[in-house]
């Protein structure tokens, strides 16, 4: 799929864009111990009919794991195994590439973990964060479980439904602390499975605020319940605070790593090997959308202004591309490369350049498609730089260092230089 997507976009946009960049013309003007969660859910109720919704499936799967004595989420051991497998796969891919007779420059997407601050590949970051949160649960069960709910659930509608349902449970208890029926939640209740238990961290949150798992009589047998004692239920101020924490929290945001790289300028300056992760849509979806868009534009072409067309192009760039790779060509004969979001402001590119300069006070200009970029508040998508762009840097202070790039850039980036 990657080859088709690359061909589709590069033919329409990249070739034109990079041919304008020119070749060297002068211009005038940035360990704590792993958590091993074991729960004693058991004794299932009578079997229900199969449910087709994703939440029902997830809830049923969670109960199935719990009935076998395991946690709703994967254990730390399982996560470590998955994480190791993904890491090994990445290493194997890198090793395979290193043995290729043709040296290629791979564009890698990494994120800085919001918890441990380590740089983690995009395909591993979700599993890594889950592992970090499970380890943190030992020390901070309440905040960790809240972060699990907000961060690990990618379905916003399902997440909201889970939080609203737990909030109702707590409201009922706060308003009726001595009422037994409000202090018990049956594990196999259909609504509980589909609205709460299917979200990672929900059962851990209930435990963190005082619920205990107990096997109690039910109908003709016994089954598992989450039960809150009356002593805990009467502490309504604490329960109100727990609810407020759950409702007001926000997902942990892992920062996109710039993955700074320095290259010796070559004829491959305008060649970008973009991975699948750069695209939000498959080639089939892109073609379908382009066809519909072309038909709509044809009908209203006479009524559309230039500003309207530009706005549509920006929206398309945001939909099609997840990331942007920027290459900055220095007059000293080197290229600085970094990874950005399409919605990042151009000021982020300037900060990226300044971060790597020995003297951040030096004055320079950046040129794209033979025009100096002056609108720092514009997004990269607005400027037409998605999914990749080459910028030319020119010193405006007229101080020349010849080809001595090591006098311009910091040692840490200079030490990584390689041929593009």
UniProtKB/TrEMBL annotation:
Biased composition (Basic and acidic residues): 26-42
Entry superkingdom: Eukaryota
Feature: compositional bias, Low complexity: 50-61
SMART domains: PUG
Sequence segments annotated as region (Disordered): 23-61
Domain PUB: 157-239
Cellular-component GO terms for this entry: cytoplasm
Name of this chain's protein: PUB domain-containing protein
Protein's organism: Amphimedon queenslandica (Sponge)
